[in-house]
Amino acid sequence: MKKVSTNSYEQNYQESLLLSKCFETIYTYPKPTIAVAHGAILGGANGLLSACDLAYCTDTAVFSLSEVKIGIIPACISPYVVKRIGNMAPGNS
């Protein structure tokens, strides 16, 4: 993640595009997709879980959008995370 700050715009764009295509492929896959997670689910792992049809996690699983700590917006995973957990904006409860 820290390498992102030193990559060129084009490198970051291509990497983000590839990651977006990966999540879209999982999300639109015609057969059920299942994710199982335990421990720390950081950054893109949240997108992977959210893109799957079913996600199973242990009671001790911890979730974090850790990329925001270094100033990176979780743009590639946001559509899937928001669909999974809902829009938490005021007035949308």
The gist of it:
The protein is an alpha/beta fold and 93 residues long.
Q: What this model shows, in words?
A:
The protein has 93 residues and is α/β, with parallel strands linked by helices. The chain has one domain: 2-enoyl-CoA Hydratase, Chain A, domain 1 (Alpha-Beta Complex). 39% of the residues lie in helices and 15% in strands. The chain has a two-stranded parallel sheet. A two-stranded parallel sheet has the order 2-4. Helix 1 runs parallel beside helix 2 and helix 2 (44-51) packs across helix 3 (78-85). The model has no long low-confidence stretch (mean pLDDT 89).
Q: Secondary-structure map with pairings?
A:
Layout: H1 9-28, E1 34-37, E2 40-42, H2 44-51, E3 54-57, E4 62-64, H3 78-85
Parallel strand pairs: 1-3, 2-4
Helix pairs in contact: 1-2, 2-3
- The CATH superfamily turns out to be 2-enoyl-CoA Hydratase, Chain A, domain 1
Give the N-to-C terminal Cα separation.
33 Å
* Number of separate domains: 1
CATH class: Alpha Beta
Q: Detail the poorly predicted runs.
A: none
Q: Strand fraction band? A: 15-25%
CATH T-level topology: 2-enoyl-CoA Hydratase, Chain A, domain 1
Q: DSSP helix count?
A: 3
Number of strands: 4
What's the overall average pLDDT, rounded?
Answer: 89
Relative helix content: 25-40%
Assembly context of the chains: single chain
Order of helices and strands: HEEHEEH
Envelope shape: globular
Structural class: alpha/beta
Q: Sheet bearing the most strands, described? A: 2 strands, parallel
